[in-house]
Write a structure and sequence with these properties.
Layout: E1 22-24, E2 30-32, H1 33-38, E3 52-53, H2 59-64
Antiparallel strand pairs: 1-2, 1-3
């Protein structure tokens, strides 16, 4: 089950569970659409993968399966992944 992390790892923008601007990679690294496009160039800086829009969990299921409250932020700042 997805954690539904509450923020962008790059700019720390709030990304509530219903946000259409939350994007994730296959490891569930979470970034806002603005950072993915303007800073990261569509590539995850953690794993080098691409991003998809994070699914929205229906409100009724958020009661039983709440979103994470653990904020993840890149301490070294946010920059594109190194070319392999």
């Amino acid at each position: 089950m997805l954690e539904l992390r509450p923020n962008c790892e790059c700019c720390d923008r709030d990304l509530p569970p219903e946000s259409p601007d939350a994007l994730i990679c296959t490891f569930e690294c979470t970034f806002c659409a603005d950072c993915v496009e303007a800073v990261l160039g569509g590539t995850c800086p953690n794993c080098g993968g691409d991003f998809v829009r994070r699914p929205v969990r229906p409100a009724a299921l958020l009661v039983k399966y709440p979103a994470s409250t653990r904020r993840v932020l890149k301490a070294e700042g946010c920059r594109p992944a190194e070319a392999a």
